[in-house]
Every structure is written in C-alpha cells, then in structure tokens.
Write a structure and sequence with these properties.
- By secondary structure, this protein is mainly α.
- It has one domain: Glycosyltransferase, CATH 1.50.10.
- Helix content is about 50%, strand content about 5%.
- A hairpin with a 6-residue loop joins strand 3 and strand 4.
- It starts with 7 loop residues before the first helix and ends with a helix.
C-alpha cells in the first residue's frame, strides 16, 4: 500500500494543531472559578499597544511607507471597537496626516505626495469616518474623489487599483464601499461591476480576485459586500458560496482563507463577515433553494417544514415577518422597474437595519475562543496564529471578527448580544459593533451617513 506523501503544508498544519491543542488542553484543565481571568480581553494592554503605534513607529515599519493610511485605519478602528478614544491632539494629527495623503486630483496615496490608490483611499476614508469629527469628514474632497473613481473604472466593468494597475475584486469593493459611504455612488460607477464580480465566482463557490483564480476569503468578502451594495447580490450563487465558506472554519475554531490552507486570525473577519452578511439574505437564499419565502414567517406550513433537508433546516429563518430589501428578480439597481428597491447610496443603511433572519452558519463561540485564546497576545495586540508575532493588521481584523461573532445572534442592529452569546466575561469581552459591509464601528457609520447625506 502506497504511503501518503507528507507535504510542507501538512507538516505546518500538524504544528498549528498541536500548538492550539496545548492551549485548549490547558484552558479546559483550569478550574471554572479561575477561567474568567484566562479569557479576559486585555483591553488596557491592547489600547496601549495601539495608541503607542499611532504616536510613533519603529524603523522596521519603513517597509510600509506606502501603507500609512492602512496603519491609521488598523489602529483607529481597533481603538474604536474597544470603545476607547485617542484625545484631541492625536485626532488632529491623524486628520492632518490623512489630508496630506489626499491627491490634488482625487483619492489618497500611501503617504503625502504618493500616487492615489484605491486601497489606501478606502483606508483613509474609513480612518476619517472613524475619527468622526466634522474636521475629519469635511477634509474629504468628494467631487475629486468621484472623478478619481471614474478614472479607475475599467472597460471590463471592474476597477483598477491605480493608474495602470491591476483590475480585481478588491478594487471593485474599495471603490464601491467608498462611493456608497460618502453618498457619491451612481449608475455610472456601478455599471458592469456585477458582471465582473460574477465572472470571479469559482466552481468552489467562493470568489477569486480575478477570473480564473482561486477562491479566497478576502476576495469573497469584497465580492459579496460589493454585490450587496450595488443591489445585485441575487445574481451570485449563494448556495455554492455558503457551501464553500462554512467549510473554511477549521478544527482550531478559526477560519482559513483558502482550501487546504492554515488557520489565520484575520479571516475571523474576512470569512466571519461573509457568513454574517448571508444571515441577512434569507429570502434570496430561500429562492435559490427553491423554497417558499413563506418559510421565513410564522405562517409557514408545518408539513413543509417537516420535509426540509438538514441543510434547508439550518438555513430556515428564525425571525418572523422578514421583509426582503433586495427584490429577487432585479439585476441592476439602476433599472426603471426598481422603484421599490432602496436607493443605491442607501443600501448600506437599509441592509444593516434589516433583522437577521437566519441562524449563524458558523460556530460563533468556537471562533471567539480561537481569537481570545490563540490570537490574543497577553502584552497587547493580536496575531495570525500561535507561534507568530503580533501586528496591527491582525489586531484590527481579529477584533473585527470577534465583534462579528459576538453580534451574530442579535436580531437587529443596535441590539446588544445576550451574555450567553459572548465567550468570556460579558463586561470584559464585549466589543462595539461593526457595520459588516464597510468594517467601521456602527455608530461612526451612522454619524458619517447623517453628515454626507446632508451635503
């Protein structure tokens, strides 16, 4: 009998599983009376780590010279999720720096004087929204930013990351996200975007960065979120997407980004948010399953429920009288027959304020356990996995994913989760809620929406 070939990836997987098992074995060996100290979210240490990075970074960060708006976003967003503030001086300094990253012809570069790029534009806009002050919001030149977005528009329907740059799903999402949250999105910007993203959905069900590539957690989030924001999510194969993403949660409790890859704390958000978004697509999922949408109401026929398969039962809605914001037959938000659909610029608000009509399709407590026990660093910050070092990127997306998991059982936006849905001591571990389409703290999103809708 031929022996199985042991690959480097398989060896690495065994190492990760062993390290995680050791952490969990120790955790479950502790007396229940002592567990609360072990699973506490180290708020003060995380805040110290983050605020120190906002003030000054060491020489090793010079390699991220073209990613400075990202560093601002990762740090500011993490602090907002902790429910902390940074003080007036740091707020003014951050606003001033990001303003100097804004190109005279629109968009934001990786630093002052650098060429505008959609990724750093997204990071800069989200940072300014997180800062939240009128000075920060008013610093955004929306007219020139819109011109920049149009300049990045590609004949394929997608967007380029920068002048002469690559066309991919990430560019589509960052462009549409920025345009939507700033209230400058229109039919010209979204034209063809849905066709491009649809061409990137793979045979596995996930979404790749570009046509013909491998399904990937980050691109899947970008593609799904963009399709929701342009009101064309019904065009995706959501059943295939669900089938792909639920199998990305591994034995460790965290998510992997691709098939046969290792767990990574950042996918707590990228994959966790995908599942969270799907929870609000109840009627679209039912339509693609060939089920009556009456199943999402209290008047569902008992005999029909008894005939559901295990998968269909898991997908069945648990909230009653849910209204579908996105009409099932609609293929574009700009069509004349779309009068009953939300305005393009308000899809983010309509979506987050819909009740969650579906139980989580992932183990939210197991994900929280991985983030707090395996990704959290005791001295502050979060890491990819045991054996890795902390960084601001993983701190941001581990906290974002932790928030997603905590709020995955709440029926409506602005409703706090129940203590039973939060891993660890409630008052010590509960984070602020994120808007899952933009990954900004929810209250900051509401403030920005009010500000930009009044212009």
């Amino acid at each position: 009998m031929e022996s199985r070939k042991v690959t480097k990836t398989l060896e690495d997987q065994w190492v990760v599983e062993r390290r995680v098992r050791e952490i969990y074995d120790y955790f479950y060996s502790i007396s229940p009376n002592s567990l609360s100290d072990l699973i506490e979210l180290e708020r003060d240490k995380h805040f110290d780590y983050l605020s120190q990075g906002l003030r000054k970074l060491g020489p090793s960060f010079s390699v991220l010279d073209a990613s400075r708006p990202w560093l601002c976003y990762w740090i500011l967003h993490s602090i907002a999720l902790l429910g902390e503030s940074i003080g007036a001086k740091l707020e003014n300094d951050a606003t001033d720096f990001l303003t100097r990253c804004q190109d005279k012809d629109g968009g934001y570069g990786g630093g002052p004087g650098q060429m505008p790029h959609l990724a750093t534009t997204y990071a800069a806009v989200n940072s300014l929204i997180t800062l939240g002050k009128p000075e920060a919001l008013s610093s955004i030149n929306r007219e020139k930013l819109y011109t920049f977005l149009l300049r990045m528009k590609d004949a394929s329907g997608g967007f380029r990351m920068h002048d002469g740059g690559e066309v991919d799903v990430r560019a589509c999402y960052t462009a549409i996200s920025v345009a939507n949250i700033l209230n400058i999105v229109d039919d010209e910007l979204i034209h063809g975007v849905g066709n491009y993203i649809l061409s990137c959905q793979t045979y596995e069900g996930g979404i790749a960065g570009e046509p013909g590539s491998e399904a990937h957690g980050g691109y899947t989030f970008c593609g799904l979120a963009a399709m929701i924001l342009i009101n064309e999510v019904n065009r995706l194969d959501l059943l295939g997407l669900i089938d792909w993403v639920v199998f990305r949660q591994g034995v460790e409790g965290g998510f992997q980004g691709r098939t046969n890859k290792l767990v990574d704390g950042c996918y707590s958000f990228w994959q966790g948010a995908v599942v969270f978004l799907i929870q609000r697509l109840n009627l679209v999922v039912h339509e693609q399953l060939g089920l009556s949408n009456d199943l999402s109401t209290e008047s569902a026929d008992d005999s029909s429920e008894s005939e559901l398969s295990d998968e269909e039962e898991h997908l069945e809605g648990t909230s009653s009288h849910v209204q579908e914001t996105f009409p099932l037959g609609q293929e574009g938000a700009g069509q004349d027959n779309a009068s009953d659909s939300p305005k393009i610029a308000d899809t983010g608000h309509e979506f987050i304020n819909r009740p969650i009509a579906m139980r989580p399709l992932f183990d939210s407590m197991y994900l929280q356990q991985y983030v707090l026990l395996c990704s959290q660093i005791e001295v502050g910050g979060f890491r990819d996995k045991p054996g890795k070092g902390r960084d601001y990127y993983h701190t941001c997306y581990c906290l974002s994913g932790l928030s997603i998991a905590q709020y995955s059982w709440t029926d409506e936006a602005d409703s706090p989760p129940l203590p039973r849905d939060v891993f660890g001591p409630y008052s010590k571990c509960l984070l602020e809620q994120v808007h899952p389409l933009f990954n900004v703290e929810l209250d900051r999103y509401y403030e920005a929406r009010k500000y930009f809708s009044g212009l």
